[in-house]
Design a protein that fits this description.
Blueprint: E1 4-5, H1 9-12, H2 16-22, E2 27-31, E3 36-48, E4 75-80, E5 84-91, E6 98-109, H3 118-125, E7 141-146, E8 154-157, E9 174-177, H4 189-198
Antiparallel strand pairs: 1-7, 2-3, 2-7, 3-6, 3-9, 4-5, 5-6, 8-9
């Protein structure tokens, strides 16, 4: 397996736009004590609260969003539609509520379920609200960078599912690996990913 290392805290202490782009190709790892699950990040979205109307923090500092206002490099996990958990990486300096939503993973180890789309990603990785506020540089849920990662062609688009945010919904703050069949909107994903998994 390719050797990996965790980034420094300073990696996360930047604008969500910079972090969202550079997370593409990095690995998300969850060790729940029984099993280690690992996936390569292939799709992200940046949220630049509190001005960004698509960000949860645009509604102010609440019990739900408190972790977003804290130090960078922590997990913000929220629950939506009474069914899905979603994982965000807290970025920028403390007090500035920026975050990056992880939207899709390419499975690397310990993953058998679908990993495209933020809710499916969390279900496959066994991530739920119990991990809200966890340090992503710790030993339970973390992000790491392959030391010899291949060069990635990164695409950009408007974010998905935030039409309610008006002009903010048009910002091209979604980033993805152009070559990955695991990106959530990939039209040929099913056939290509099955072929890749079988080879």
């Amino acid at each position: 397996m390719t050797k990996c290392s965790k980034p420094a805290r300073a990696f996360f202490a930047r604008s969500a736009l910079a972090v969202a782009r550079e997370l593409i190709g990095m690995h998300l790892v969850h060790d729940d004590g029984c099993r280690v699950r690992r996936g390569r990040i292939v799709e992200t979205e940046a949220y630049l609260g509190p001005r960004d109307r698509a960000a949860h923090s645009s509604r102010g500092r609440t019990a739900r969003t408190e972790v977003m206002f804290g130090p960078p490099g922590y997990a913000y996990v929220y629950f939506i539609y009474g069914f899905w958990n979603c994982l965000n990486v807290v970025t920028a300096k403390e007090g500035v509520p920026h975050a990056v939503l992880l939207r899709a993973l390419e499975p690397l180890a310990g993953l058998a379920d679908k990993t495209w789309g933020p809710g499916l990603l969390c279900r496959a990785m066994h991530i739920d609200r119990r991990l809200n506020g966890v340090d992503l540089l710790g030993g339970e849920l973390w992000i790491e960078k392959p030391r010899h990662a291949a060069r990635v062609s990164i695409g950009r688009s408007a974010r998905i599912g935030v039409d309610y945010a008006g002009e903010w919904a048009l910002r091209p703050w979604r980033f993805y690996d152009r070559a990955s069949c695991y990106v959530s909107t990939h039209r040929r994903r099913t056939t290509e990913c099955r072929t890749a998994s079988a080879s």
